[in-house]
Write a structure and sequence with these properties.
CATH class of the domain at 48-156: Alpha Beta
CATH architecture of the domain at 48-156: Roll
Helix content: 40-55%
CATH topology of the domain at 48-156: Nuclear Transport Factor 2, Chain: A
Strand content: 15-25%
Number of strands: 6
Number of helices: 7
Structural class: alpha+beta
Shape: globular
Distance between the termini: 73 Å
Largest sheet: 4 strands, antiparallel
Order of helices and strands: HHHHEEHHHEEEE
Length: 158
């Protein structure tokens, strides 16, 4: 029996073209799926995700619009920040305001702005902004039952 390669290749082409496109064109996880996963993770770790989602949005807005007083109010003190190869402890908002522009330079503000909620990494230490953990934030219980939580930046890595 002889195989007609012209017919066989025609048959293979028709078979391939008739396969459902969905088998090749599977979309990657949508941002909705990722948002749901981040929500679940934050709910599991911290009880509820909404305050953390709001904090990220508020922090992005304040840093983008150069609202220095609002940004420094969102930081937990004392905080140690690595500047020019030296760890410097800032004990208060006023201390940090003196070097605000050096810390929140255009590069750090860009990292903050580019962080998407649906791509947040979170663990028991906090929630990470930036691919290299440039900023971490977490919640602090304000009452015995931890029903009231205040979210603050806890780490800045420059």
């Amino acid at each position: 029996m002889q195989i007609n390669f012209a017919r066989l290749s025609h048959f293979v082409l028709i078979t391939i073209l008739s396969l459902p496109l969905t088998s090749w064109a599977q979309p990657t996880a949508s941002s909705e799926d990722n948002t749901h996963e981040v929500n679940q993770r934050l709910d599991f770790l911290y009880g509820q995700h909404q305050p953390y989602q709001k904090f990220l949005k508020d922090f992005q807005t304040a840093s983008h619009e150069h609202h220095k007083n609002q940004v420094v109010a969102m930081i937990h003190y004392p905080i140690k920040i690595n500047l020019n190869g030296k760890k410097i402890t800032f004990k208060s908002r006023q201390d940090l305001l003196k070097r605000y522009d050096e810390i929140f330079d255009p590069m750090l503000v860009k990292i903050i702005q580019e962080q998407k909620y649906e791509n947040l990494f979170a663990n028991t230490h906090g929630v990470m902004i930036g691919e290299s953990g440039e900023i971490w934030f977490s919640g602090f219980c304000l009452d015995k039952d931890c029903k009231k939580v205040e979210i603050k930046v806890i780490t800045i890595n420059k």
